[in-house]
Amino acid sequence: MSWELKAADLPDLARGATLLGTGGGGDPHIGRLLVEHVLGDGSITILDPDELPDDLFVIPTAQMGAPTVMVEKIPAGTEPLLSLRILEEHLGRKAEATMPIECGGINSMIPLIIAAQTGLPVVDADGMGRAFPELSMETFAVYGINGSPLALAGERGERVIIDTGGDNRQMESLARAVTIRLGGVGHIAEYAMTGADVRRVSVPRTISMALQLGRAIREAREQHRSPFEAIARVLETTLYTNLRELFVGKVTDVERRTTEGFAKGRAVITPPEGAHDGEFTIDFQNENLVAKSNGDLAAIVPDLICIVDFETAEPITTEGLRYGQRVRVLGISTPEMMRTPEALETFGPVAFGLDDSFVPIEQLRPEPSW
Amino acid sequence: MSWELKAADLPDLARGATLLGTGGGGDPHIGRLLVEHVLGDGSITILDPDELPDDLFVIPTAQMGAPTVMVEKIPAGTEPLLSLRILEEHLGRKAEATMPIECGGINSMIPLIIAAQTGLPVVDADGMGRAFPELSMETFAVYGINGSPLALAGERGERVIIDTGGDNRQMESLARAVTIRLGGVGHIAEYAMTGADVRRVSVPRTISMALQLGRAIREAREQHRSPFEAIARVLETTLYTNLRELFVGKVTDVERRTTEGFAKGRAVITPPEGAHDGEFTIDFQNENLVAKSNGDLAAIVPDLICIVDFETAEPITTEGLRYGQRVRVLGISTPEMMRTPEALETFGPVAFGLDDSFVPIEQLRPEPSW
User: Fold this and answer.
1) CATH of domain B3-204
2) Closest Cα partner for B210 from B234, B228, B175, B178?
3) I need a surface site. Which of A151, A160, A351, B294 has the fewest CB within 10 A?
4) Do A161 and B161 touch (CB under 8 A)?
């Protein structure tokens, strides 16, 4: 069912989107401030994908760049809409709705900024079902929609259009090169498609899921219940059925470098004194990619690996990791459409050059944690 | 007067364009083969700038990239025309003529490939009056024409449009980033303008000048006359009045690296044994920028610094420099429109970060050499 999003919902949505960012995706709280500023007392219509007219013309919108840079560069607020306008002019057709390409991190907010500015509705779905570091890592692409033509807007009004036909990886490569020259952040509109396409190729209801997750965590804290229990109950009602506790411990090392437009590195978590669990490591490229306990696979992309506060379940991004933090590492299963052979080729372990193969988290850890 | 260019003219034109390439600009002989292949027995109409209708719609075309890479990557032949078509579609207007942005090096040939393929005429003028390493280093830009929107075509059919408004340096920066990702070479259409604009902002009759220079060198050799004398007599009839011999000697060192899409380095030439001239150095960034004799300024950009064979006057590009070659270094004065304060700001010494100021070659070396 379609519904109205109000400014009061945004802090919960941002919390849920940070969790789905799996350590990356950029900080949604920065985007949230921009949405609040533009939205005021108004509301944004969120369209359920099942109710979209087949021929509705939808243009997804996003920000691209290394999250470490995004934290430093708050967008001016005009670039997101400019990217949409550039693509509309190029295609000679106006968008009738926008939507996220990525429900995790700041890209949960970018389409909302545009919606608040223009009155356009936003489709409750996305193309990553979490956050991923590259524009080609989209269920849209997996199921046959081209990212091209892509429109890119820079903070000084730069306009770029990139069309690589069916080669979404080349599109990513060229857009990344431009984004780096623009100072590390660009705003993009891409993967234009119809309502019928959206139903076929996107991960449904991920905006509502992020909102419910963020709200459930907050309410559990307010009512002194377990926020982890609350997360588990929300996920049961979605396509992300399985929640697992992968590890509990302290952050003892974070190695991180920004290279070629990405934040790459490794976090090391060690068990509390007296425990004998050995070392837990998480490798990331913007997002957490693979988690290992004493060298044994604990969870792997595209399943979600989320580091959260030990007690409050507040999600912690890669940039937010600090020595000595007490954390829990959560694993969440992704929907089946994100685990098909063609999906794994696009954003599974092999797409990141990892040696391990994909194993569903519910096979690695059969018992529910909550 | 407008005239017809035939395949038989191309070897002379390529030789002249290599001289005007001042060490860079890419090898025109590769482009020449493509023009010959497409042109066959036909001819290309070369329009005199004075005869252009005021409202003629002209789109200049070119290749961009490091000349060291261009030598390795022969263009497929479809990209030059694709770049023109991308810009035409974007602007919603068909070109009525094309022209070079750069008369030196391979970019003397790229508009001819398009002309041979389409029957479009080519304007006898360009925007550099020689070769320069960056797309913003144009008399077009100096005298108020925007390079944007720029269209860029890649060898696998990639289409990119870049619009940075009046910021031609940012246009160069973004196009360079894309070109590097495309493997080092891209084909571009940019600086669209009217016939009236062309007359106001371009260096006139540089295609005919390149052809006359190449022909004069060949004929002098065939008739056992001095090719240097022949070059001097051609230049007297153009806006490039002054020819000077800067140095005679042997190439003893060439230091060269391809970095950020440019070929940068230094050539060292030492005098014949017994002479007491000291060392002669030429610093280049794709093109020769500054020549010094024993540390004293001998010639500096935008004046032309050309290394040629000691005897035959065959121009030698930076990539063609070899240890032990016997060479003459020639200096040629540029037209006045390339030496105004605004022109020097765009492509004079300061634009290349050089410490020396511009001094006209006819002041540095008052006496004609031939």
Assistant:
1) 3.40.1610.10
2) B234
3) B294
4) yes
What's the gap in Å between the CA of A157 and the closest CA on chain B? 7
Per DSSP, the residues of B52-99 read --TT-EEEEEEEEE-HHHHHH----SSHHHHHHHHHHHHHT---SEEE
Predicted confidence at residue B62, as pLDDT, reads 97
For A294-340, the pLDDT digits (tens) are 999 999 999 999 999 999 999 999 888 999 999 999 999 999 999 99
Tokens encoding A291: 């988690």
Domain-wise residue ranges, chain A: 3-204, 240-364
Nearest to A164 among B158, B162, B164 (CB): B158
pLDDT of residue B190: 98
SS3 B156: coil
**Interface A-B: count of C-beta contacts within 8 A:** 67
* Closest Cα in chain A to B174: A178
The b/e string for B84-113 (b: 16+ C-beta within 10 A; e otherwise) is bbbbbebbeeebbbbbbbbbbbbbbbbbbb
Residue B259 confidence class, pLDDT cut points 50, 70, 90: confident
CATH domain A240-364 topology? CV3147-like (2.40.390)
The residue written with tokens 């259409």 in the block is B189
Question: B148 CA to chain A: closest CA distance, Å?
Answer: 10
**B188 and B64 Cβ atoms separated by less than 8 Å:** yes
**Within the 44-103 window of chain A, which residues sit less than 8 Å (CB to CB) from chain B?**
90
**Omega of the bond leading into B315 within 30 degrees of 0 (cis):** no
Which band of pLDDT confidence, cut at 50, 70 and 90, is reported for residue B78?
Answer: confident
Which residues in A lie closer than 8 A to residue B154 (C-beta atoms)? 164
Among A159, A167, A176, the residue with its CB nearest the CB of B163 is A159
